[in-house]
């Protein structure tokens, strides 16, 4: 067993950074000598000296035999895996590789409809056929939960030839389904359970957090280490446990989607983040949970606001309590409007605005001061009608933008719409077939009942409402327009105003 105190990749990068020599290899800036002075002024010179390629001492991500292999083995041990891969292209490339490694053209894969858009990329590249299972929907909170074991069993009974099951665990809101039961059902068919665990990298390090996907029986899981732990943005990991995933095929799939020039700064941040959480994980997560409970308790007492708690309902058996979802619709405003006020005027920025609520990520990087600011901002938000003429509290960091009064007149304080996800009829074409089909652009009202050629979703959280090959329904179109009108962002649509759509040519 290797010592979790070691950081082999980080140490090797540090050694090469401090090694003085004449570089005649990429990158072109040569240790920062060719970097714009304005960028050096922002980031400092040291980071560019560490921006190195696959030198012999730094190993090779596609054929690791040295320090990368050592670092990945340490990560596997820390996260409870048998094999771990570092990802420098984010969890997106891990999700795509997982699908390509387990499903070929025409193969069926069972997955929830509230999957991330990266899954659709995996379907397009692999040619797999999605068998969608609708997640349970919480209308009180306008939140999609997880799929249930019963729904998974029904899908497998109807499609026993499926090659894999993929689930989302946890959801963007921290909701966890009964993954252990889903794993047991999936394994009865001797196929792998793939898990998008992008928001659950911290689960394995504290007993008061939900069970990690690997502990619950997952065969493969992808984690965004940068989302909840101490790695840099875009740095993720893919873990495998058991024998149901073909490792050589997974290696080939990763070579399709990983950059051949990975950032060693990102890779070293994974090594460092692993060491930090392996050595001090329980202490760090205890502190994080205490901060989250402080925020949860205080905000739940503010009139007009409510906080999502664990609900004993289908598809919702546990909650990541470091994820805080606050309903603002009882104030008569949308989550988008509340987000704009908090961000531009009160110096607090949420992770995810939705029509009825906001979601905040509380992690090991947050402080007592952050929580105090969050509670204070929510108190001011809830009392805006009575406080419109009072001056905003002074923010030395510029959080109020220099305003002297609380100007809550923008954006409009309209009632929050109730926007349940529309129904999704089975797609007549696979995502791959639709992606490579001839297309045309038509007016939005003429697109109803046509097949979408675009992957369109409100972002975040990046859950598609229309994807290539699906029938464009009136409800789906109305949903997108309502989200857009309420202040949400729509991605994937060539016309960002939703006046026209790209469809498969008849």
Short summary:
The chain has 506 residues and is of the alpha+beta class. It contains 18 helices and 19 strands. A hairpin with a 4-residue loop joins β4 and β5.
Describe this structure in words.
- The protein has helices at residues 8-17, 37-43, 46-49, 67-79, 90-102, 117-126, 149-158, 179-187, 213-216, 225-228, 247-257, 264-300, 335-345, 368-382, 384-387, 431-435, 444-447, 474-485, and strands at residues 83-87, 108-112, 129-133, 137-138, 143-144, 164-168, 175-176, 193-196, 220-223, 236-240, 306-307, 318-319, 323-327, 352-353, 357-361, 439-443, 457-458, 490-491, 500-504.
- The model is unreliable at 385-418 (pLDDT under 50).
- The longest helix has 37 residues, at 264-300.
- The strands form 6 sheets. The protein has a 7-stranded mixed beta sheet with strand order 1-10-9-8-6-2-3, sandwiched between helices. A 4-stranded antiparallel beta sheet has the order 11-13-15-14.
- With 506 residues, the protein is of the alpha+beta class.
- It is 36% helix and 14% strand.
- α1 packs across α12 (264-300) and α12 (264-300) packs across α14 (368-382).
